[in-house]
Write a structure and sequence with these properties.
The chain is mainly alpha-helical. The chain has 13 helices and six strands. The structure holds fe (ii) ion (2 copies).
């Protein structure tokens, strides 16, 4: 693997064709907002010094699974891709390209973090470094495959430019664990839900990339299991009062962000014959249930109050977008947006304060 700074613009993993016959244009990255995927960095020395002994056997077993590289031959484009992009109408094309871009950016964000971690802790923590290297391999493949699909639409993300220019958010290791665990598990449920839906409704399969989701999501599932095992090797990350507060915070932040973003992009889900709200409810419920295997608490997502709260965030977000697109001068725009920012803050606080569910009550069989 190459270090992030040397990633070629197309970042296509080895064995896949680079470039396209019609020389796709480099797409300008979307403006960063609270809803766009982030890039992360962390305390590498603390990661290197991490004692894995409390759960070393499980981590070793997971690493052995990674070594098998089950999807080594999976991400190979076939003839189904030829001409597939031309079959989409302009509106579907637009929302589909947005989906590809967002997915590619988050896969690539995982690649950068895992790659950098594996490189920086190699000497001091070889088992952890090897696991991260295998996961970086998978994410590079995922991002490359998505970027290649974008090139079918005559566009490509300049991943080298993103690497050098996007802002990096610093998280202490335990926050990296919560955030990446959730993003891997939610990624698993998102991909498998789409795959299973399209299995039943093949007429809604608007692009052949969805055929790849079943094996693909197994990568994400394994990555999530790795972070589960890692948190169990560092039991203080998922034990005690502070851990319970942070787990609630991360669950809420991840669920709310996804819900607001997906409802704002409901046209994409409609194109697949899905209702964005129903889809998100399913994904959130499943991810919440899965999280109870390792987090000490999870959210009461089956309570209607939870969904009402998320709906108010959606409404505020629509007003914020309208203010943004109003063409008003900067200060006036800010003035118009202020009440909705405040309302969002209060709404998030209310959701955060909802009584959580203790995981041992929710998932007694696995805890
Ligand atoms: Fe991935
Ligand atoms: Fe992943």
């Amino acid at each position: 693997m190459v270090p992030p700074s040397a990633v070629a613009p197309t970042a296509a993993p080895a064995g896949q064709p680079v470039g396209t016959p019609d020389a796709p244009a480099i797409k300008d990255p979307v403006k960063d907002t609270i809803l766009t995927p982030r890039f992360y960095t962390t305390d590498f020395d603390a990661m290197a010094a991490m004692d894995l002994r409390p759960n070393e056997a499980e981590l070793e077993a997971i690493c052995e699974e990674f070594r098998k590289d089950y999807n080594r031959h999976h991400f190979v484009r076939n003839e189904e891709f030829v001409g597939a992009a031309d079959k989409l109408d302009p509106e579907t094309r637009k929302v589909f390209v947005e989906f590809l871009e967002q997915s590619c950016t988050s896969e690539f964000s995982g690649f950068l973090l895992y790659k950098e971690l594996s490189r920086r802790i190699k000497e001091k923590n070889p088992l952890l470094a090897e696991c991260f290297a295998h996961m970086a391999r998978d994410e590079a493949r995922h991002a490359g495959f998505l970027n290649k699909a974008m090139s079918d639409f005559g566009l490509q993300l300049d991943l080298g430019f993103l690497t050098a220019n996007k802002a990096y958010t610093f998280f202490k290791p335990k926050f990296i664990f919560y955030a990446t665990y959730l993003s891997e598990k939610i990624g698993y449920w998102r991909y498998i839900a789409i795959y299973r839906h399209l299995e039943k409704h093949p007429e809604s399969k608007i692009f052949p990339i969805f055929n790849f989701f079943e094996n693909w999501c197994q990568d994400e599932n394994r990555h999530g299991d790795f972070f589960d095992a890692l948190m169990k090797a560092q039991p203080d990350t998922v034990r005690g009062f502070t851990a319970r507060l942070w787990c609630r915070f991360f669950l809420l932040a991840v669920f709310a962000t996804m819900y607001v973003r997906d409802v704002a992009r409901k046209e994409f889900y409609e194109a697949l014959g899905l209702d964005a709200r129903e889809y998100d409810k399913y994904v959130i419920d499943k991810t919440n249930e899965t999280s109870a295997r390792v987090f000490p608490v999870v959210l009461d997502v089956r309570n209607p109050r939870f969904w009402n709260g998320l709906e108010r965030l959606v409404a505020n977000n629509a007003r914020l977008t309208a203010a943004d697109e109003s063409g008003a001068p900067g200060p006036l725009k800010t003035f118009r947006k202020l009440p909705y920012w405040v309302a969002n803050g209060l709404q998030m606080a209310q959701l955060f304060l909802m009584k959580p569910i203790r995981s041992e009550e929710f998932q007694p069989a696995v805890r």
